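Researcher: Here's the sequence for the chain we discussed earlier.
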Amino acid sequence: MRTRSTVLFVLLASSLFLMGMSVPPSLLRSNAPALEIRTTIRPVTEDPIHLLARPVPGTYRCKTVVFAEPGSRKVFGPPDIVITPGETGETMTTFGPLTVMFGARIIDRHRAETIVTVTRDGVIVSRQRSEAWLPTYTEAVVPAR
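Model: Thanks. This is the structure I predict for it:
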């Protein structure tokens, strides 16, 4: 039986293969340059596209992207984590020799914490821990009276 992470890896690997995307040579070197990591946490009500089966309001979408090189446009990262206040989520993805482990925790309605760990061939090359103040959101739009 395949685990969820195995299925996600197979989907990612096949989509990269279909797109003709290969691992940049700079990522294969052991003395590769530092990676740039960006993390965002936003209410799902601010998603750019509202699909029919979207997460419920009151949840937050936690996302991280890793740039192949600082200033590069080549990015990769694990799937987004959607959680509510008080919950913790983790996800992981592999890209060539790199593995990105992403964990997020919504402490309360106002604060969140993320940890991103990047390993190359099993050796930690970057670890970033961030705390953020969450944007507030409205539960519903109320018509003016």
